[in-house]
């Protein structure tokens, strides 16, 4: 298995910097500050081209100048039905759009045999909470049928989800929002 190395990227998010685990294949894991991560003992990435690509695209996204993160993904930490659901999310729900947990469950095709009402939506919620590729696989765009739903990312998780959805124009900015203007 290809070795992991880490890139730490400053962000304006309530959670602070993000950490991205990279391999020669692509980004294998993304975490918000303070979250436990796979391969936590791996060294910092020293490949300047990789560091520049990751930090540059994230800076453009957080600055409101990029809508699509075009970093290659190493799917090693998402397998089976979890990967199917995450890939469907990436394919179907672009910048500035949202989908409910239940809608994503239905679109994925993974839960066709589930008869219990709400079980597929709850399972998708758990899958989003276990998303190893936060932001690149935009679990912040998956919401509850009656509101925002939950979000990982440590104690400021829901604030982070609101920040990202405000950046993307899904939610109106509040007076204290510190995102890009215009």
Automatic annotation (TrEMBL):
Broadest EC class assigned to this enzyme: transferase
Protein name: Methylated-DNA--protein-cysteine methyltransferase
Record family assignment: Belongs to the MGMT family.
Methyltransferase as UniProt keyword: yes
InterPro entries: MethylDNA_cys_MeTrfase_AS (IPR001497), MethylDNA_cys_MeTrfase_DNA-bd (IPR014048), MethylDNA_cys_MeTrfase_DNAb (IPR036217), MGMT_N_sf (IPR036631), WH-like_DNA-bd_sf (IPR036388)
SUPFAM superfamilies: Methylated DNA-protein cysteine methyltransferase domain, Methylated DNA-protein cysteine methyltransferase, C-terminal domain
NCBIfam families (alphabetical): ogt (TIGR00589)
Functional description taken from the UniProt entry: Involved in the cellular defense against the biological effects of O6-methylguanine (O6-MeG) and O4-methylthymine (O4-MeT) in DNA. Repairs the methylated nucleobase in DNA by stoichiometrically transferring the methyl group to a cysteine residue in the enzyme. This is a suicide reaction: the enzyme is irreversibly inactivated.
Domain Methylated-DNA-[protein]-cysteine S-methyltransferase DNA binding: 88-170
Keywords: DNA damage, DNA repair, Methyltransferase, Transferase
Membrane-traversing stretches: none
Protein EC: 2.1.1.63
Keyword Methyltransferase included in the entry's annotation: yes
């Amino acid at each position: 298995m290809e070795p992991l190395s880490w890139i730490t990227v400053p962000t304006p998010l309530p959670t602070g910097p993000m950490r991205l685990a990279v391999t020669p294949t692509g980004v294998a894991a993304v975490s918000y500050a303070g979250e436990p991560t796979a391969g936590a003992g791996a060294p910092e990435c020293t490949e300047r081209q990789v560091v520049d690509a990751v930090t540059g695209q994230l800076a453009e996204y957080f600055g409101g100048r990029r809508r699509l993160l075009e970093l290659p993904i190493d799917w090693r930490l998402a397998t089976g039905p979890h990967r199917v659901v995450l890939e469907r999310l990436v394919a179907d729900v672009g910048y500035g759009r949202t989908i409910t947990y239940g809608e994503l469950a239905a679109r994925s095709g993974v839960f066709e045999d589930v008869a219990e009402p709400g079980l597929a939506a709850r399972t998708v919620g758990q899958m989003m909470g276990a998303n190893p590729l936060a932001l690149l696989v935009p679990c912040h765009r998956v919401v509850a049928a009656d509101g925002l739903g939950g979000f990982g990312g440590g104690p400021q998780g829901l604030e982070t989800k609101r920040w990202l959805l405000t950046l993307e124009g899904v939610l109106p900015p509040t007076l204290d929002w510190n995102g890009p203007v215009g």
